[in-house]
Amino acid sequence: MNRLAAACLALLLLPGLAAAADVPVRVRVIQGSRQGPARLDPRLSDLQKQLGKLAYQKWEQLDEQQLNMVQKKTQFVKLPDGNQVALTVQEVRGDTVTIEVALAQRNTLSSVTIDKEKRIVHQVSGEKNGAAYFVTVRAWP
Fold first, then answer.
1. Could you write out the DSSP letters of every residue in 69-109?
2. Residues 75 and 133: beta-carbon distance below 8 Å
């Protein structure tokens, strides 16, 4: 009977333990610009294919952070213009993660599910003088 009780208790506790597991996340703040000659910051070479499809011709990495995120707990990334991006891991299933990107100043909320080897490139500011800020998010970098 003790083994059965212990097994039931373990089954009840395991989902909570899995939900609390850290998810390492690499976040980069980048700027895309329509001004000047075409150029890709060498630190963004892994994003060349994704960024090449966007309307901007010049890309520069402005910041990079390694975050250890816990499911349902929001972390903030500061942008050069003083605004903040809120990032929340909503769900983790095996090698798939759902990440929420929120911007209070623009009243936007996006939720994207990606596989372990993929990343999000998300515009997080309006265009001003031909340039805009983006964040790239990759879980388990």
1. EETT-EEEEE-TTS-EEEEEEEEEETTEEEEEEEEGGGTEE
2. no
Backbone angles phi, psi at 43, to 5 degrees: -70, -10
Pair 78, 84: CB distance under 8 Å: yes
Tokens (6 digits) for 100: 């929420």
Please write the tens of the pLDDT for every residue from 54-88: 999 999 999 999 999 999 999 999 999 999 999 99
Contact 34, 130 (CB under 8 A): yes
**Distances in Å between the alpha carbon of 61 and those of 56, 65, 75?**
14, 11, 20
Q: Reduce the secondary structure of 29-47 to three states and give it as a string.
A: EEEEECCCCCEECHHHHHH
